[in-house]
Specification:
The structure is a single chain. This protein has 298 residues and is mainly α. It folds into 2 domains: 89 residues; 164 residues, hpI Integrase, Chain A, CATH 1.10.443.10. It is 58% helix and 6% strand. It contains 14 helices and 5 strands. The strands form 2 sheets. A 3-stranded antiparallel sheet has the order 1-2-3. Strands 4-5 form a two-stranded antiparallel sheet. β4 and β5 form a beta hairpin. The longest helix has 29 residues. The radius of gyration is 25 Å and the shape is globular.
Length: 298
Amino acid sequence: MPNFKLVIQQNALENQKRYHNRKIHIEEKMKEIPSQYEGDIRRYQEYCWKTGQTVGTEAMLDYLYTSLTEQRIKKTTWERRLAAIKKYLSVAYKVEFKGEARIAYELSAMRKMYREDQYAHLLQVRGKSAVEKKELTDILTRLPIRAKAICLVNLVTANRPNEMVRLRIRDFDLKNKSVQVYLKKQKRWHTKRLTQEVVIAIEIYIREYHLKLDDYFVGRVYKNGRYESAAISEVGYGKALQRWTGLTGYNLRKSQVLAMHTAGADLPTIARQTGHKSLETLIQHYLTVSEITVDKYL
């Protein structure tokens, strides 16, 4: 019996230790500021400095109001700025936004202003354009070995940039023409299909650059041609795509969706390849009538 009590006490101590460590870890995670917020936070800090204001909620509201009424930024940009500044103030200055009725009231009023005639044009959202797939594929197949393989994979899988930069060679099953993609937005793994043309391009890329299973598929290549296995940033990946094709990852993603839709694929089939969880999102943002279709009937 004494031994049993000792075990119970030891378990209780271990549990308490785990609880404590968990809470510390969660707190640290909550204090992390996403890297995509850095630019918006810097611009807010510069605004406070130029206007002689103390960093805080009052300066935040002033900055957001000016962003709308003077800079006339898009609504989507305004919302992103708000999210970035709120995160910055909550982490760096321990600002609590819950229960702040006045702040919520002013933010609500600014959102309503976007529906006024003079600001209504700022609600427009222009998505990335689709490109006719055959024309695009012809361009991609003429690229150098590495660029060709990466761009073809991005096109056929309709991967998001954050999915492309995380791909490793081990994620590909070339024999079965598939690839396992981690959908960061949905926090889950998803299988996507590859065409034989893409499989061949990947095989040549792996062979030419002597890639190993743990290597990143995109990685980094220096001017002397030396490959380095590294998870490059989404910004860096975007710049590479621009150099190679003049397009973005979302141009490729939307082009694949449109091509599948035009070929007669139903929505669940398209979503199966792209990784879309919501068919409504797929319809609203990817399957609106394209300019190419309109042009056919002009």
